[in-house]
Amino acid sequence: MNTCDTADWIVFCDFDGTITTRDTCDAVLSAFASPLWRELDERFHAGELSGRECMARQFATVTASEDQVARFLRDHVRLDPAFPRLVQCLQTASIPLYIVSDGFDLASATLLQAAGLGHIPRFANHIEFSARGARVTFPYRRDDCISGGGNCKCSHVRSLATGRQVMIIGDGYSDRCFARLADLVFAKRVLLDHCRQAGIPHVPYQSFEDLIASPEFQRVVAKTAGV
Ligand SMILES: [Mg+2]
Ligand SMILES: [Zn+2]
After folding, report:
1. How far is the CA of 155 from the centre of ligand 2 (A)?
2. For the whole prediction, is pTM greater than 0.90?
3. Where are the alpha helices (DSSP H) in 46-152?
4. What is the Å distance from ligand 1's center to 227 Cα?
5. Domains plus CATH for the chain?
């Protein structure tokens, strides 16, 4: 009887700097890459390199093994402490959650599994570590995407939302492409500036704690749960 209600919303959530308190690419590059990575980052911010090209070149200088990187991530990167509660709220309200990351798959897999949240479906760039340098590939790239990132987040929204209302949660450059498609945007940092400049309606937030407490989020979970 409530099937329409329960199919009402779908949530897409960024990973780095949104679910984690620290960007996993920056963390791994600081620890393992040639110092050149910061220069490449500046060229990306200056618009001289796409996100994809920047990431591929930065990780090509990382010669650490997959085990070393996974261990480092578990020891040095934390999740937002209220993320499990967000997952629980959405599950209770039968709202599907997808994680869309423009970072690399080993990072999100390692950290979510360590938190007992490895079952959440996710999309990310693919990385293979080797002593000759890590190789990043972009199975979800789209050359016509405005984000220039490796993982085109708007294409996941287009293929998965199927008539549902879309909530997105993000903080960065790669979140710009899907913010335009959302019915409800929770934004911080770069994405917040972008929404302000582009006139995209949004709700600013700092952590999942205040996102969960916001009337906008509460309205969605209450409505979907049929309360
Ligand atoms: Mg991010
Ligand atoms: Zn896109």
Report:
1. 6
2. yes
3. 51-59, 66-76, 83-92, 105-114
4. 32
5. 3-224 (3.40.50.1000)
